[in-house]
Batch of 2 targets.
Target 1
Amino acid sequence: MRILIVEDDVEAAGAMARGLSEAGIETVHAADGVLGLAAAQAGGFHVLVVDRMMPNMDGLTLVETLRREGDQTPVLFLSALGEIDDRVAGLKAGGDDYLVKPYAFAELSARVEALARRRETGSVQTMIKVGDLEMDLIGRIVHRQGKEIDLQPREFQLLEYLMRHAGQSVTRTMLLEKVWEYHFDPQTNVIDVHVSRLRAKIDKGFDHPMLLTVRGAGYRLDA
Amino acid sequence: MARVLPQVFRTTPFRLTLLFLTVFAAAASIFLGYIYVATAGEVTVRADRAIGQEIQSLTGVYRQGGIKALNHSMVERAVGDRPFLYLLLDRTGQKITGTIEASPVERFNGTQTSVNFKVTDTDPDGAEVRHSARGQQVRLQGGEILFVGSDVSEAESFVLKILRAIWGAGALVILLGLAGGVLISRNVNETMVGLNRVVIAVRGGDIAARATLRGVNDEFDELASGLNDMLDRLERSMGGLRHVGDAIAHDLRSPLSRLRSRLELALIEAEAGKGDAQAALAQALEDADGLLATFNAVLAITRLQSAVEAPDQVRFDPGDLAEGVAELYEPLCEDKAIEFKLEATPALTVRGNREFIAQALANILDNAVKYTPEGGAVRLRVRRRASGEVEFSVTDTGPGVPEPDRPRVVQRFVRLEHSRSQPGAGLGLSLVAAVAEAHGGRLELDEGPGALNGSGPGLRVALVLPRPS
């Protein structure tokens, strides 16, 4: 995977590149908005990671320009601001995700991977299959090894998200944002409790666990 | 010039009064001027008409009886009670007869109309007085010249009286207007001086200065109470900032120094080739995350406190929102064997920022679950009060907060002794309070239904939002 980092803070960009290369992601760095736009227009990136505030051209303008030109490469905005209105402005400009600085590398790489993957699955699915786990999106039924698993609506959504990102790390914040649609940081890790309930339903009594805890990052559903 | 004027003359009301007076005086001048022209004009017109008639009558006599008859008639008329002055001159300009000596008309071209002149008379005391008069002159067919005049001094003195009255009235209007202006200005000025004194005091650093309300509910009282509100807010946020400064120094210094020594120790041990560097780093990372979470919370609170009102407000059903947050916390309650109940009045409406209110609610629930012992109960209730306000309340059967401590736990970084063992930075309720305030609402802390094991009264925390307008 190859991503473009548009970030005026060279040191931060360097750290980001090192962090992402650990996750097997190749990075190209552009040091301001104008250079970033030129690099993005040249193409060849799976994801663009764009800082909101930069000299010459700010991140919002960069992404708006790309979107006007019909470029649909997924964009992850980085920002030190982090208020709700900032996030909304970022998404309105054509961003696909929003991450507030400072962030954990695990969070960044998980989100970058999620964005890159999202692009590959374009068509409308009716069934998702991960290993011996099967989800019927129309009948809203889940089977593992042919055995029906009874899930609450929220558990179903949680599992759907994990299945769509099978093999990738997803963080607690991502789950809270994408499944519950909350953008704040709960003091207690309520997500862990929900995940462990789901785990009890899909893994208990089967030969191998699928829903794994990734240290320092979050969770991963593996076949 | 402006500097030597007393204060009252420099006030806006006084200037407005002056402006008004100028406009009023101009209008009055036009009106009074019209009256003057009309009356004075009428006096001359009447005199001219009477003179014209007299001349006509005399020329009639002349046409019928010639110069002799005219002479006779003029003498008769002059001794009669007619109010006219007469003069008849022969072809060479010599006086034939008349009550005045010479014609006031200097160059006569034959068609002279009216002329103003003065006649000398003797008043009852024997003194000479000069009266204003007006007359007309005609040349008769035989070449003689006839002049008839009329004393207009009485009419003129009437006009003068009117003129004097006009001046007097004008002066009175302006004086009264000025006096009124001064009175209004002084009154307004006193109020403004009071408000200004507050502004000067605050500028000088006395943030506690407040304007006094006159209690008459006028726009000045409104301004004063607005100023006071603004200062209250400013004082609170300044106090808040000071407190945050102190609190950050106090509460973040220890985790920061812990982090530092952990890293230093890990470095020393790594250099010596022993110790678990990986574990130390993981722990350090966790410490840093905790610090960042605290910073973010402080940032969110200060942003909310400095905003006039919460951004992105929409109308929504508070029951729906509560259900969502409740669903997030329910499994946590079950794990702790806490009985959780949500009671929401359906189909209520409230206006606000969903995200902030959800977070506030999550913080309240988080605390309730954290401090309620196993086997206890937590209840989330959404209802409309009789006042129309919408209340989200969470009651728990934990130890509660002693009444004297309740105002304090809302402050940033304040954690009561027994809660120090629990995770958290002491920012949860501060954020709830900031969210409530940014929506024009408030946070209420009360006794709950009683603690499970009798160790306290339990706690009831209510986020109260105003009735949607």
Target 2
Amino acid sequence: MTKEEKATAYWKTNIKYVLILLSVWFLVSYGAGILFKDALNTIKFGGFKLGFWFAQQGSMYVFVILIFIYVRLMNRLDKKYGYDE
Amino acid sequence: MMNSLLVVEGLGVQNWTYIIVGLTFALYIGIAIWSRASSTNDFYVAGGGVSPLANGMATAADWMSAASFISMAGIISFAGYDGAVYLMGWTGGYVLLALLLAPYLRKFGKFTVPDFIGDRYYSKTARIVAVFCALLVSFTYVAGQMRGVGIVFSRFLEVEINTGVIIGMLIVLFYAVLGGMKGITYTQVAQYCVLIFAFMVPAIFISIQMTGNPIPQLGFGSELANGSGTYVLDKLDGLSTELGFAEYTEGSKSLIDVFAITLALMVGTAGLPHVIVRFFTVKRVRDARKSAGIALLLIVLLYSTAPAVAVFARTNMIETVSNQPYASVPQWFKTWEGTGLITFTDKNKDGIIQYVADPNQNELVVDNDIMVLANPEIANLPDWVIALVAAGGLAAALSTAAGLLLVISSSVSHDLIKKIIKPSISEKGELIAARLSAVAAVCVAGYFGIHPPGFVAAVVALAFGLAAASFFPAIILGVFYKRMNKEGAIAGMIVGITAMLLYMMKYKLGWFDEVLPDKSEWWFGISPEGFGTLAMILNFIVSITIMRFTKAPPKEVQDMVEEIRIPSGAGEASKH
């Protein structure tokens, strides 16, 4: 691979990761926490209605996990393309 | 009163407060002396060698302001479900930061956000527009912090709010001017520890008290500890509807507005210069990603506790004061009445506190800001816990104020003086200019803290809208769209921020009409707080449209974008 090809391939994979992770980001917060809140609220676990729980707890936990997944994926990707240091 | 307490209960709240606040202040000053800045590199980006963990902690403290620590749980406790806009909005932005901004800005490796805008869009105009936006966002935000400092001082140390503001100013001045980013970073690390401890201890106490569960995040989904078998949230939903409020877990804002506000806060968070600049201080691109993750983890620790505190505090408050005779209210009620943050007007003259949704019959007004501060007193926690909360509130306000002041001073000394007015200035001269502008910024912030213009409080929440409407699209397009040129970006920023300002003036401040326009006139039902979302979309549309009809950026800028996308070779943030 030339230098440019390498850079392009790296960038494409990065964009793919970002798009997948941002879809999850959108689904838990705007989906489960806002748009589908009422439907999810019919489900209860413990004292929590599920939609309410996603809005005030669950989505935040998922956000943290998403960033750490991205950190891992990118560290691996950097290594694969020799961009790690 | 305090003296008798002293005899009966040992040290008393006030002495505990002096001790704990005094110790934390001594700690911050000690750190500031130890980490003095000796170069502009130290002053702007702490030498570029901060570890991801330290940067994560500093970012978390920088981020969590008086609003997060003091006001947020209170706002949630009055807003119920709707409070989720702040919880999701102020955390979800970190996902955008980690995935879309931080790594590339770190690789770019300069000192400030206007630096990036100016270089990426090869234009002095772009830089000046960015400086203007940075100053506007940061000043609106910092005034609120100084006010927070004043409130804590006046209640817990029983000094005038203004004296409190001045003490706060002097402390910030000391370590921001002396240490620059380096001093600020390491004091923020200490401040994170203080504030998270101060927030968690009372939350855990109260959670055990009310539900027997020591983890507040689980506690507010548990049953009450009184053996009734009722879930806390069901109890609160019941109490709320009884008094005529919306059900706590349902909220009352429209769906579209909740959506827009959440998005505006998320995008605004990712576009706030004092947050972005923190990622210039780490060594490598991978450290930038990692420290965004650590920062969010540390932030979520507090943010996931806040809704629990909100539920406990509201349930407690309603049960303690609603329909109780005014003559027998507990001591904390009287103390807070003294600060004007609780007011009781006995409208029907029956001597009993009616707390109901209907404004014509409601007799009790409780300010959002005191729910966290008064919570330990309401729950009868020990004096040292109450004192700890005061120290935590101060840590939160001071750390954020310091971070903002640094953005203000570097915008002036670096972006305006060094890059535009007098490029020949020596490094030593620039460092002096940076320190002087920090002093000036503290004075202006303090002035707004003491004489808050009526609109400051209203405008603080809108700082996010301003950031969303200006920086976020310009940076995203700058990284992800190589063809984006200066004409597009400048037009986008100007249109975005102008739209946001106009909407705010019309629908939040009511400057254009005799009376503040009614909610029904909002565009698409979106409140001024949520308008940042529309202004951001407008910015994107204008940028891309103008770009289509103007010249592509020069080859070296396009090469620079390619370069930013590759993480290796970030070096120190000093290659100027």
